Amino acid sequence: MTHWNFLEKGEIIDVISPGYPSPTHEVEDARRFLFNWGLIPRIPKGIIKPHFLHAHEDEKRFEFLKAAIQAKDSRVIWCLRGGYGSNRLLPMLAKLKKPKEPKLMIGISDITSLHTFLIQEWGWSTLHGPLLVSMGRDNLPPKLEKEMKRVVFGPQTEVEFKNLKPLNDAARKMKPTKSKIVGGNLTVMQSGFGTPWQIKTDNRFLFVEDLGERGYRIDRMFEQFRQAGLFKKCHGLLLGDFLGGVEPVTQKDNFKKVFKRWADDLEIPMFQGLEAGHALMQRPVPLNTPCVLSVENGKGRLVVQTGGQE
C-alpha cells in the first residue's frame, strides 16, 4: 500500500477528462467548486475538443494524463467525468516509467480502467469517488461533500459503511476479515478481460456497481467473471448501486432476482448496500487500502482506510 498526503488549501489539482466530453458550463462548475474548496484547479487549455466519442483524440487525452502524472507541483488528479475512453489510454500509460511519488486519482465509472492499472502496475492507492461534474453541481447532498472534504483534507482516515445486507450464508456466517478492495464499474472491468490489465481479485474484496445494464447483462458479466476464475480466491463480492436497466415488458428491473441467483451460487460472501456508484450519494470507496469487514447483529460493517496521512 502507498499512502498519499492530505491536501492543504492553495494546492494545485490536476483536472483530466480521459473519457467523455463535458459542456463548457460543467467545466466551469468544476473549476468553481475547486476554488470554493480553496484549491487551484489546473484545467488544460483545450481539454475538450469536438469528437464523435471522447473529450479529445486519444493522443491528446493521454498527453493531459501524462502531464498530470508527471507534474511535480501537484499531488492529486481529479477526473472531470467518466463515459468511455480511459481504457484506450492504457497501452500508452504502460510505456511510462512509474513515478517516484504516488498521486491520488479520484473518479468513478470509466475511470475504473485507470484505478485498476495504477493499483496493479504501480501499487498506488486510489479513491473511487465523485467526479468533478458531480461535485460541481449544487444539488449534491451536503453530507457527501462534507465527507469528501474530510477524506481529502483530513482528518478522516477511514470510511465506514454500515448496515450492509448479507445475501448468502457465507456472508451471514463470516468472521471479521481483513483485506483490501478492488473494483468499480462492472462493465468497464469486463472490458479489461484478456488484456494485460485484467483485474486481479485474489485475496481481495471485489466491489461492483453499474448504470443502465439490464439483469441478463449483469448475469452474463458475473458468469464471465466466474468462468475466468475471479471468484475462486476472492474474499467477497460487495454490491454498490445498480441503476436503470428496466425490462422493456415489465418496466421493472430484475436485479433482485439476479443477485439472489448469484448469492445462492457463490461460495464467497456476498453483500449489498454500499452507497457508491452512479446514484446521488456517491460515497468514496478507497481502493487498495486495508479494510475490515465484519457482521454485527446480522448486518455487515465495512471499515476502509483512506490511505491519507498528515
Mean pLDDT: 96
Helicity level:
25-40%
The CATH class name of the largest domain reads: Alpha Beta
What's the CATH architecture name of the largest domain? 3-Layer(bba) Sandwich
Number of domains: 2
The low-confidence runs, each spanning 5 or more residues with pLDDT under 50, are: none
Name its key features.
alpha/beta; Rossmann fold; Glucose Oxidase, domain 1; 2 domains; seven-stranded mixed β-barrel; 10 helices; 25% strand
Structure in words:
- This protein is 29% helix and 25% strand.
- α9 runs parallel beside α10 (255-265).
- α10 (255-265) links the parallel β10 (236-243) and β11 (270-272).
- The protein has helices at residues 24-36, 58-70, 90-93, 112-122, 132-135, 142-153, 169-172, 186-191, 215-227, 255-265, and strands at residues 4-5, 12-16, 40-42, 74-79, 104-107, 126-128, 158-166, 177-185, 205-211, 236-243, 270-272, 285-287, 290-296, 299-305, 308-309.
- Strands 7-11-10-9-8-13-14 form a seven-stranded mixed beta barrel. Strands 3-2-4-5-6-12 form a six-stranded mixed beta sheet, with helices on both faces. Strands 1-15 form a two-stranded parallel sheet.
- The longest helix is centred in the N-terminal third of the chain and has 13 residues, at 24-36.
- The protein has 310 residues and is an alpha/beta fold.
- The mean pLDDT is 96.
- The two termini are 16 Å apart.
